[in-house]
Amino acid sequence: MSFTSSSQIVVQLDENSQVGDARRNAVRIAELSALNETDQGKVAIIATELANNLVRHGTKGEMIIRRCRSTHADGVEIIAFDRGPGMGDVQKCMEDGFSTGGTSGTGLGAIKRLSTEFDVHSQRPSGTIIVSRLLCSISDASTRGTCGVICIPAPGESLSGDNWSIAEKEEVISILLVDGLGHGPLAATAADEAVRVFNTDPFREPGILIDAIHGSLRSTRGAAVAIAHANLNQRQIKYAGIGNISGTLISGESSRGLFSHNGTVGLQIRKIQQFEYPWPEKALLIMHSDGLQGRWNLLNAPALMNRDPAVIAGSLYRDHKRGRDDLTVAVVR
């Protein structure tokens, strides 16, 4: 099973006129997927309800709409978040008939019923994050790990110089994060090439994969690269990194950074070294580019740590983005 970063739209939601943009973009992404016309209609309703909620109740609302495609499923994922004021009682707000804005009060409940997967986290005064996925299963196989990824280009850029890929096979999840040097089209070219090489055989040892990517990126401006293999049965992570991709393991009340060597893949590497770390049950693996500030601390937010990984990724993006560079954050449980 693999996930990639193609087919994504980001919509800002500050006024009613933008609700239609959110709906149209969601339908366009849904039409690219294997969803039938009925499910495409459900995506339109979900996007409209989420967008209306952001405009009516939120501050600086934003929606990330992307195709969620893998070997086993295809569909649409929508992550909606705002920056306040938050919901005082999430469960109460989920009930049909409850409303603080003079509407019929069926929005959140309807979104949950229409979604294949749904999660919400809200805190006063920081705001609310909602993830909704509508998936069409094309295989009886199921995944054993869950992941959430947000990848956003730098302000003013249409292409992200960051990229990512996640592959799953039996008990192993393999994760690549790459940050092309600089930003814009040339950085995107380097990042895309790293993803291409990774996807040819994502279950090779991380150190061997980085060496292969290093050779392939010599004709580009280069990139920072990190690769993690998480073995669910052995409860172990193999990790190798070059450059400024950060990796962190969070378990219970402890947090551990994963080591990367200095250098630029494709240009100059002094040493490729693979490390092994224990991966405790229910631990979170978080990897991110330097578009995310390094001073976040999920240990201060235990309720958030239990949420869907996409909600966690959305919270980190919303609260800790630098705002001047490409940003990618991946969360794996």
Protein traits:
333 residues; Heat Shock Protein 90; Phosphatase 2c, domain 1; six-stranded antiparallel β-sheet; 8 helices; disordered N terminus
How is the biggest beta sheet arranged? Answer: 6 strands, antiparallel
Helix content: 25-40%
Pick out the low-confidence regions: 1-5, 98-105, 140-144
CATH superfamily of the largest domain: PPM-type phosphatase domain
General shape: globular
Count of spatially separate domains: 2
Q: Mean pLDDT score, rounded?
A: 88
- Tell me the name of the CATH class of the largest domain: Alpha Beta
Describe the structure.
- Helix 2 packs antiparallel against helix 4.
- The chain is an alpha+beta fold and 333 residues long.
- The longest helix has 21 residues.
- It is globular, with a radius of gyration of 19 Å.
- It has a six-stranded antiparallel β-sheet with strand order 1-8-9-10-11-16, with helices on one face. Strands 2-3-4-6-5 form a five-stranded antiparallel β-sheet, with helices on both faces.
- 28% of the residues lie in helices and 34% in strands.
- The N terminus is likely disordered.
- The chain has two domains: 136 residues, Histidine kinase-like ATPase, C-terminal domain (Heat Shock Protein 90); 186 residues, PPM-type phosphatase domain (Phosphatase 2c, domain 1, 4-Layer Sandwich).
Compile the SSE list and pairings:
Elements (H helix, E strand, L loop, with lengths): L1 E3 L3 E6 L3 H16 L4 H21 L3 E9 L3 E9 L8 H5 L12 H8 L2 E7 L3 E11 L9 E6 L9 E8 L2 E9 L4 H16 L5 H11 L6 E9 L4 E7 L3 E6 L2 E5 L4 E2 L3 E2 L5 E4 L5 E5 L13 H4 L3 H12 L6 E6 L1
Helix pairs in contact: 1-2, 2-4, 5-6
